[in-house]
Amino acid sequence: MAFPLPKLPLSQWIDAIVNWLEATIGPFLTDVSNVVQAVVNAIIQFLNWVPPWLLIIVFAIIAYRAGKWKLALGTVIGLLLIWDLQLWRDLITTFVLVILSALVSVVIGLPIGIWSARSRGVYRVVSPILDLMQTMPSFVYLVPVLIFFNIGLVPAIFATVVFAMPPTIRLTRLGILHVPVDLVEAARAFGTNDSQLLWKVQIPIAMPNIKAGINQTIMLSLSMVVIASMIGAGGLGADVMSALQTLNVGQGFEAGISIVILAVIMDRVSQKLGGRNANVTK
Amino acid sequence: MGEPYIEVHKVTKVFGGRSEQAIQMLENGKSKEEIRQAIGVNVGVDRATFTIERGELFVIMGLSGSGKSTLLRCLNRLIEPTAGSIVIDGTDITTLRKAELLKFRQRTMAMVFQNFALLPHRTVIDNVAYGLEIQGISKSERLERAKEQLKIVGLEGYENQYPHNLSGGMQQRVGLARALANDPEILLMDEAFSALDPLIRDDMQNELINLQHKLQKTIVFITHDLNEALKLGDHIALMKDGVVVQTGRPDDIISNPANEYVERFIRGVNLSKVLTAADVMKRPSPLLRVRDGVRVGLRKLNEAGLSSGFVVDDEQRLMGLVSAEVLAKSAKGPMQMVGECELRPVTTIKPETSLEDLFQLVVETNYPMPVVAEDGKLQGLVLKSSILEALASQGGERNGVSASEAPVIPVD
Predict the structure, then answer these.
(1) Domain ranges of chain A
(2) Of B37, B98, B172, B282, whose CB is crowded by the most CB atoms within 10 A?
(3) Taking CB atoms and an 8 Å cutoff, what residues of chain B touch A188?
(4) What is the ipTM score, two decimals?
């Protein structure tokens, strides 16, 4: 039975908005896209120019600083395997995409998280948007993003940021709200002003939570980058896609295991980096 | 001491809006409970009025929910008072603007918290230096000053520890050092020792008293423990349901409870810790003077039926004890005045000696204990019977003004 009222023209409205946006800021966004694309390509080319063994050493050092010998050793073995599977160039592309997306997410997400912790009104606006960002099927916004940015790396980064930013915002807010009230009160009693309170008390104490949020953002970036390869981002995700299209199970597994290796390394390193003073917080 | 430093006048805190209506109802004599039922707002503090003198330790005491912590937070406006004025050294701090208030909190007041409230991500020394850091004092100077404070509270060598590595008592010393580092005029202490073990608490109380003698800060101390209040307080304000029920010196509150509530409260107090020799001593009578003739002295003793008596000089300074026997012997000899006879030295006690400490002395000696002030003047006598009397009556009389005069018990 049909609903007794006429159908809301929601889809037409959205189409109209997208069309209007395309007409007004479309050219500008295309320019932005071209600039970003050029920068990202330059980074990728640079990392491809560096010999893989040197990068593996650099990663091993970072892993050693973050964790122990075990993590450094695992990193070396995993990366050597990817190199051996001839997926090195794709690995670099994926890695750059993940790092850039996570960076953008954190740079935008941290201040929003702090802001929404301090103002209930802001959180009331931000919270439903975060729900939307996390649950809206990504293909739904991948297509309009393509309209604005053309195919390539930039729409992939945009889509990844949309998907990966919420944990940084949510956990930053949570961390700041969970700073014990008596500590905030003590700080206030000593004449601490708002910005001192933020930088000297709230952010340091919320740091474990903020780090957890950033870690989650990196992980979500990685999972989204695979999907984003459908819109021309390239990288390991593209290998998975092409393997699926040709029903090449073995090739799909090779790309898949490479993604897993990258994920594990980035997860462990991002969890532990800068975590040495995490044990001083209660 | 003695000049009013903090004047709290009709400070009221109403939580939950409709404050004007609530204040009007308070003025009309409605109780906190009636207001809560009528308009659903909670009265935290109800027209608290009292004065704190410079350099004294002022205790605000009450049970939980009595509004004492709210009142304390009104003093530095961590909680904004709804009405009333708080004049500190001539400045009404309720009118301060935000920037002035921050400066005031940085310079004039510091606070010590029940649960220490140390910053977990900072070392002990950085915690102590926090207030100085907020004021923008250079790193080298603030660390130096913080180090001095740690020395004062006896935590030298713990500079680079983190708070969670310290025991509760040590953490609160850090809290105290942090407050003192700002060199504030006023210390606000919110149940500062309540979270500590009894023995540690006792130590901290004693140290606070010592510190107070040294530094002469004005301290506002919150507690729910009447023993603590009586031990520390120069003056005490008792709170119940947001109302200051009684203010006074500790012994005033003990001996003249303003109402049944206060009386019920003090029934649980260990009086032997609270009352001092000055509270239970009696007027010494008869007294022999050094210039009294020997025969006059002898007659005084005989009239009172005593075998010995205390001798004082013209300025009431205690010279010693003389027995009737010695006087009688002297009367036959060349000596004319009591002062020339053989005087026995006596153990004396100070007016501020607590009853607890008196018990032992009184049991060991078999004559009344003379109470002698610092200037050497005899203030009164403590008898075994007067101690028991004081404990039995829950009162005790002040400063030897009692009507009953102490007979000197014949001993020897």
Answers:
(1) 26-280
(2) B172
(3) 78, 105
(4) 0.74
